[in-house]
Amino acid sequence: MQENPPEVLVSEVGPRDGLQSVKAVMPTADKFRWIAALYAAGVREIEVASFVPAKLLPQMADAAAVVRHALTLPGLTVMALVPNVRGAQAALEAGVHKITIPVSASEAHSLANVRKTREQMVEEVRAIVALRNEIAPQVKVEAGLSTAFGCTLQGQVAEDDVVWLAGQVIAAGADESGLSDTTGMANPAQVRRLFQRVRAEIGERTGAAHMHNTRGLGLANCLAAYDVGVRTFDSSLGGLGGCPYAPGASGNVVTEDLVFMFEAMGVCTGVDIDKLLAAREPLRAGLPGEPVYGMLPEAGLPKGWSVA
Amino acid sequence: MQENPPEVLVSEVGPRDGLQSVKAVMPTADKFRWIAALYAAGVREIEVASFVPAKLLPQMADAAAVVRHALTLPGLTVMALVPNVRGAQAALEAGVHKITIPVSASEAHSLANVRKTREQMVEEVRAIVALRNEIAPQVKVEAGLSTAFGCTLQGQVAEDDVVWLAGQVIAAGADESGLSDTTGMANPAQVRRLFQRVRAEIGERTGAAHMHNTRGLGLANCLAAYDVGVRTFDSSLGGLGGCPYAPGASGNVVTEDLVFMFEAMGVCTGVDIDKLLAAREPLRAGLPGEPVYGMLPEAGLPKGWSVA
């Protein structure tokens, strides 16, 4: 483990975003093993499940059990995705530390994904915050603005819309709002511009950069976000996952490569790379035959590697 | 074709760096087709060959013929790599516009690669410049500092050594000196720091960033170099190639992904992406069975794509 305090927070989304994107269902015991291995590597925030009807996403049917297991790991922030109040209720009852609500910046994606307009989703955020205030006021609520950098359905998404929506979800009571490149359309100039504009709107409530590597720009976009002050980065071990509702989109940023980039730069993540690589084993074991990505895992650490 | 003048120069190295890294020999006629397709896409600098003994690199036995063909393409800067005076003589006689000399920043790599110390390579640069002055004074001479960011043989390479060597090759008469991440060990913080230091030493004679994607950081490193003023970037169509003398290293930055990154950022490259993708066909045809990489080619251009 590092001696230095982490300067960036790597928020692992594989057990939620990754697992709900593949057809196979990872057995609950394998999820436990995988999450424990990520924790052992020093990962301190994990999106472990989404609370959605098991009929829609059988991969997430064991969400409450996975949350309860993750809560046994000291110092881990246990996150879950919830699309609505019903999901939030279940997540809060399971005891999560943080919930994240996807809110599409693209109207077309919002309607296709949750059959709600963006304004209706802002109202959903408001209702979830009210529920949180009532039954679990210590729980953090994040609104993640999906398709913030472009949409496979409607094409470009106006930056003004994203900035407006960030203001709306914070006004509705969300503790923070991040930006998601759901469709792999972001570029570094846009990432810098948009995060700066959102920060000007909502200040320190600006949340995570959730980047995809669809067109190879994932790490460059994370670097761009880091350059303008973002300090929380979503990624997925082995690059598992993407958004099943955005046709043609795939490929979360690979946690292994992201951690390597920051550590090589001398930016402490608190994550041990060798142990992180070891966490690929339970992922493979729990999802036999599923492709697992990553450039660092293929090449290995450089000769003479030492954290700067 | 773009109306705007290019803001960055994408220097294609595939026909040299790529082809000399694979075992198969691309037939000369296929090299012509591939180079013509790159040119048709708007690429205006191509490293078309290296002038080395055909016994060592049979892939490059047709170097003079390839140069002569490339010289028929108006406005194209025709480059060749030369390791020594003998190679420079052949390249200059063939009529190249620019020669590039690899000079290792790592003493261990220099000795392994060309059996010369770094000081001896600086003398080779001096002798090549003298020859150039005598027989073809209009030709540009670049010294590319290989292993500038780390070495698979000796591990870390001191930044002071790189800055010193850049000063030495310029003092020996090279027109410019770039930095090569031969071994895929560079990180964005190091790229910014080292290019800034080299620029402080040799000013506008600072040359290209030659990055590898060995550990997935290729584009992030190009972005970092761009941020500190670098405007020439080496890359290889389909990510072909690497350095055959650096064990475990592989993977030039993919031209398609690099051009996409810059064009998406609104930085004009002068390259037409659709035509660039079409240039993969003669590459595949000339090297059957060889893997060809690239994220953008897999994902395609985003919906609603237009140059910013």
TrEMBL record, chains A, B:
- The UniProt entry's coiled-coil ranges are none
- PROSITE patterns hit by this protein: PYR_CT
Which is a GO BP term held by this UniProt record? Answer: L-leucine catabolic process
Q: Which InterPro entries match?
A: Aldolase_TIM (IPR013785), HMGL (IPR043594), PYR_CT (IPR000891)
Which UniProt keywords are listed?
Answer: Lyase, Metal-binding
Which Pfam families did the record assign?
Answer: HMGL-like
**Annotated ranges, domain Pyruvate carboxyltransferase:** 8-277
Molecular function terms in GO for this entry? hydroxymethylglutaryl-CoA lyase activity; metal ion binding
| Record-annotated membrane-spanning stretches | none
The UniProt family comment states:
Belongs to the HMG-CoA lyase family.
What PANTHER family does the entry give? HYDROXYMETHYLGLUTARYL-COA LYASE
Q: What is this protein called?
A: Hydroxymethylglutaryl-CoA lyase
- Per the UniProt record, the source organism is Ramlibacter agri
